[in-house]
Amino acid sequence: MKKLTILFLLTAVVASFFFLTSCYYDNEEYLYPGTQGPAGCDTLNVTYTLTVAPVLATHCNNCHNPADPRGGVIVDRYDELIKVVNNGSFWGSINHDKDYSPMPRNSKKLSDCNLLRIKKWIDDGALNN
Q1: What is the pLDDT along the chain (129 residues), one digit of tens a residue?
Q2: Rounded to an integer, what distance in angstroms lies between the CA atom of residue 39 and that of residue 6?
Q3: Is the distance from CB of 59 to CB of 110 less than 8 angstroms?
């Protein structure tokens, strides 16, 4: 009886070990690479309306609107934004790339998450969605 109890406990310990370690790679980042950015930055459902436009409203539209188109650039409307997206100057500026005016001017770069989301939107075709 004692041997049976010890065998049962040993089997339970070994089985528990396998159950606990089997979930090690069962996390979203491993299963779905490229859908999460820094600190859980969701890049799965990036759209112009819900993702890009709010970032521009917060960081860009004050200086780049029809009433005050600094540098001749307007980004508060999709039809104007797409012009600078297509010529590469939008990404170059917000990413502070060499040979582009860093935007927002006299300010820090946008957060890594916002940049990742905007880059995803551009890479996906910069749709008006």
Answers
A1: 676 677 666 666 666 555 555 544 444 444 445 444 566 799 999 999 999 999 999 999 999 999 989 999 999 999 999 999 999 999 999 999 999 999 999 889 999 999 999 999 999 999 999
A2: 45
A3: yes
| C-alpha neighbours within 13 Å on the C-beta side of residue 67 | 2
In sequence order, what DSSP letters do the residues of 58-110 get, joined into one string? HHTTTTEETTEEGGG---SSHHHHHHHHHTSHHHHHHTT-TTS--SSTTSPPP
* Separation in Å, CA 72 to CA 3, 7, 63, 69: 85, 79, 10, 5
Structure pTM?
0.70
Sequence ranges of the domains in the chain: 2-31, 38-123
Stated length of the chain:
129
Indicate the residue type of 62.
N
